[in-house]
Design brief:
By secondary structure, the protein is an alpha+beta fold. The protein has 2 domains: 35 residues, Ubiquitin Ligase Nedd4, Chain: W (Single Sheet); 111 residues, Nucleoside Triphosphate Pyrophosphohydrolase (Alpha-Beta Complex), CATH 3.90.79. It has 3 helices and 9 strands. Strands 4, 5, 6, 7, 8 and 9 form a 6-stranded mixed sheet that branches. A 3-stranded antiparallel sheet has the order 1-2-3, with no helix packed on it. Strand 1 and strand 2 form a beta hairpin. It is elongated. The chain starts with 11 loop residues before the first strand and ends with a helix. The model has no long low-confidence stretch (mean pLDDT 95).
Protein backbone atom coordinates (compact mmCIF):
# COMPACT_ATOMS: atom_id res chain seq x y z
CA UNK A 1 0.00 0.00 0.00
CA UNK A 2 1.51 3.30 -1.08
CA UNK A 3 -1.19 5.91 -0.38
CA UNK A 4 -3.48 6.58 2.56
CA UNK A 5 -7.00 5.29 1.84
CA UNK A 6 -8.41 8.05 4.07
CA UNK A 7 -6.71 11.26 2.84
CA UNK A 8 -4.57 10.07 -0.10
CA UNK A 9 -1.25 11.23 1.36
CA UNK A 10 1.79 9.12 0.53
CA UNK A 11 2.38 6.69 3.40
CA UNK A 12 5.65 6.65 5.35
CA UNK A 13 7.25 3.90 7.41
CA UNK A 14 7.21 4.33 11.19
CA UNK A 15 8.06 2.09 14.10
CA UNK A 16 4.77 1.33 15.90
CA UNK A 17 4.47 -1.44 18.48
CA UNK A 18 7.97 -2.69 17.62
CA UNK A 19 7.18 -3.16 13.93
CA UNK A 20 7.62 -1.08 10.79
CA UNK A 21 4.19 0.06 9.65
CA UNK A 22 2.96 2.18 6.75
CA UNK A 23 1.45 5.32 8.29
CA UNK A 24 -0.14 8.50 7.09
CA UNK A 25 2.13 11.49 7.79
CA UNK A 26 -0.92 13.74 8.14
CA UNK A 27 -1.42 14.05 11.92
CA UNK A 28 -5.09 14.97 11.47
CA UNK A 29 -5.66 11.68 9.63
CA UNK A 30 -3.54 9.26 11.67
CA UNK A 31 -4.17 6.22 9.45
CA UNK A 32 -1.99 3.16 10.14
CA UNK A 33 -1.84 0.14 7.82
CA UNK A 34 -1.69 -2.75 10.29
CA UNK A 35 -1.38 -5.48 7.62
CA UNK A 36 -3.39 -7.98 9.67
CA UNK A 37 -3.68 -11.55 8.35
CA UNK A 38 -6.57 -12.49 6.10
CA UNK A 39 -8.82 -15.28 7.44
CA UNK A 40 -9.04 -18.36 5.21
CA UNK A 41 -11.13 -21.46 5.90
CA UNK A 42 -9.99 -24.99 5.03
CA UNK A 43 -11.90 -28.28 4.96
CA UNK A 44 -10.74 -31.84 5.14
CA UNK A 45 -13.83 -33.22 3.41
CA UNK A 46 -15.02 -36.69 4.41
CA UNK A 47 -17.24 -38.12 1.67
CA UNK A 48 -18.48 -41.73 1.38
CA UNK A 49 -15.93 -42.94 3.97
CA UNK A 50 -13.07 -41.34 2.00
CA UNK A 51 -11.37 -37.95 2.08
CA UNK A 52 -11.51 -35.58 -0.86
CA UNK A 53 -8.45 -33.58 -1.85
CA UNK A 54 -8.43 -31.24 -4.82
CA UNK A 55 -6.15 -29.54 -7.30
CA UNK A 56 -6.76 -25.85 -7.86
CA UNK A 57 -6.86 -24.73 -11.49
CA UNK A 58 -3.84 -22.47 -10.91
CA UNK A 59 -1.61 -25.22 -9.48
CA UNK A 60 0.76 -27.55 -11.29
CA UNK A 61 -0.25 -31.15 -11.97
CA UNK A 62 0.16 -33.41 -8.97
CA UNK A 63 -0.35 -30.73 -6.30
CA UNK A 64 -3.47 -31.44 -4.21
CA UNK A 65 -4.76 -29.89 -1.03
CA UNK A 66 -7.85 -29.34 1.08
CA UNK A 67 -10.84 -27.26 0.05
CA UNK A 68 -10.06 -23.65 0.98
CA UNK A 69 -11.41 -20.17 0.53
CA UNK A 70 -11.48 -16.69 1.95
CA UNK A 71 -13.89 -15.92 4.74
CA UNK A 72 -16.45 -13.40 3.51
CA UNK A 73 -17.69 -10.34 5.35
CA UNK A 74 -20.36 -11.17 7.93
CA UNK A 75 -19.66 -14.90 7.77
CA UNK A 76 -18.60 -17.13 10.65
CA UNK A 77 -15.76 -19.56 9.88
CA UNK A 78 -18.28 -22.42 10.16
CA UNK A 79 -20.61 -20.79 7.62
CA UNK A 80 -17.68 -19.99 5.35
CA UNK A 81 -16.35 -23.52 5.15
CA UNK A 82 -19.78 -25.02 4.48
CA UNK A 83 -20.22 -22.45 1.67
CA UNK A 84 -16.79 -23.28 0.20
CA UNK A 85 -17.50 -27.03 0.18
CA UNK A 86 -20.78 -26.33 -1.64
CA UNK A 87 -19.20 -23.90 -4.14
CA UNK A 88 -16.11 -25.96 -4.96
CA UNK A 89 -17.42 -29.53 -4.72
CA UNK A 90 -21.20 -29.13 -5.01
CA UNK A 91 -21.60 -31.03 -1.72
CA UNK A 92 -23.69 -30.31 1.36
CA UNK A 93 -21.64 -30.40 4.50
CA UNK A 94 -21.70 -30.42 8.26
CA UNK A 95 -18.75 -29.82 10.53
CA UNK A 96 -17.38 -32.89 12.35
CA UNK A 97 -14.55 -31.19 14.21
CA UNK A 98 -12.34 -28.15 14.42
CA UNK A 99 -8.79 -28.88 13.23
CA UNK A 100 -7.05 -25.78 14.51
CA UNK A 101 -5.61 -22.46 13.49
CA UNK A 102 -2.58 -22.40 11.21
CA UNK A 103 -0.49 -19.34 10.34
CA UNK A 104 0.55 -19.05 6.73
CA UNK A 105 3.05 -16.23 7.10
CA UNK A 106 4.16 -16.09 3.45
CA UNK A 107 0.65 -15.11 2.31
CA UNK A 108 -0.25 -13.26 5.54
CA UNK A 109 -3.18 -15.61 6.14
CA UNK A 110 -4.70 -17.32 9.15
CA UNK A 111 -6.06 -20.74 8.14
CA UNK A 112 -9.10 -21.92 10.14
CA UNK A 113 -9.41 -25.66 9.51
CA UNK A 114 -12.30 -28.08 9.96
CA UNK A 115 -13.18 -31.67 9.13
CA UNK A 116 -16.44 -31.58 7.18
CA UNK A 117 -18.72 -34.57 6.52
CA UNK A 118 -20.26 -34.11 3.05
CA UNK A 119 -23.13 -35.64 1.12
CA UNK A 120 -24.45 -35.29 -2.41
CA UNK A 121 -22.76 -35.69 -5.78
CA UNK A 122 -19.34 -34.19 -6.44
CA UNK A 123 -19.59 -31.40 -8.99
CA UNK A 124 -16.54 -29.14 -9.13
CA UNK A 125 -16.55 -25.48 -10.09
CA UNK A 126 -14.07 -23.49 -12.21
CA UNK A 127 -11.51 -23.35 -9.35
CA UNK A 128 -11.06 -27.13 -9.09
CA UNK A 129 -9.68 -29.11 -12.03
CA UNK A 130 -9.18 -32.46 -10.36
CA UNK A 131 -10.15 -34.33 -7.19
CA UNK A 132 -8.95 -37.51 -5.52
CA UNK A 133 -10.68 -39.60 -2.88
CA UNK A 134 -8.37 -41.25 -0.37
CA UNK A 135 -8.97 -43.69 2.46
CA UNK A 136 -7.89 -42.52 5.93
CA UNK A 137 -4.73 -44.63 5.60
CA UNK A 138 -3.95 -43.23 2.12
CA UNK A 139 -4.51 -39.70 3.41
CA UNK A 140 -2.09 -40.26 6.29
CA UNK A 141 0.57 -41.45 3.81
CA UNK A 142 -0.06 -38.83 1.11
CA UNK A 143 2.83 -36.42 0.43
CA UNK A 144 1.40 -32.89 0.28
CA UNK A 145 4.81 -31.34 -0.31
CA UNK A 146 5.32 -28.40 -0.84
CA UNK A 147 2.07 -27.51 0.96
CA UNK A 148 3.34 -27.62 4.55
CA UNK A 149 0.16 -26.02 5.96
CA UNK A 150 -1.88 -28.90 4.53
CA UNK A 151 0.58 -31.37 6.06
CA UNK A 152 0.19 -29.59 9.42
CA UNK A 153 -3.61 -29.77 9.22
CA UNK A 154 -3.52 -33.49 8.37
CA UNK A 155 -1.15 -34.08 11.31
CA UNK A 156 -3.53 -32.18 13.59
CA UNK A 157 -6.41 -34.34 12.30
CA UNK A 158 -4.42 -37.54 12.87
CA UNK A 159 -3.63 -36.50 16.45
CA UNK A 160 -7.26 -35.66 17.20
CA UNK A 161 -8.50 -38.97 15.79
CA UNK A 162 -5.86 -40.94 17.74
CA UNK A 163 -6.75 -39.12 20.98
CA UNK A 164 -10.47 -39.78 20.43
CA UNK A 165 -9.79 -43.48 19.81
CA UNK A 166 -7.77 -43.73 23.03
CA UNK A 167 -10.60 -42.36 25.17
Amino acid sequence: MKYCPECRAELVERDIDDAERACCPNEECGYIFWNNPTPVVAALVKYNQHYVIARNSQWPAGIFSLITGFLESGESPEEGIIREVKEELGLNGRINRFLGLHSYHEANQLIIAFEVEATGKVSTNHEIVETMQLSANELEQYDFHPLYITENIITQWQNLVKNENQE
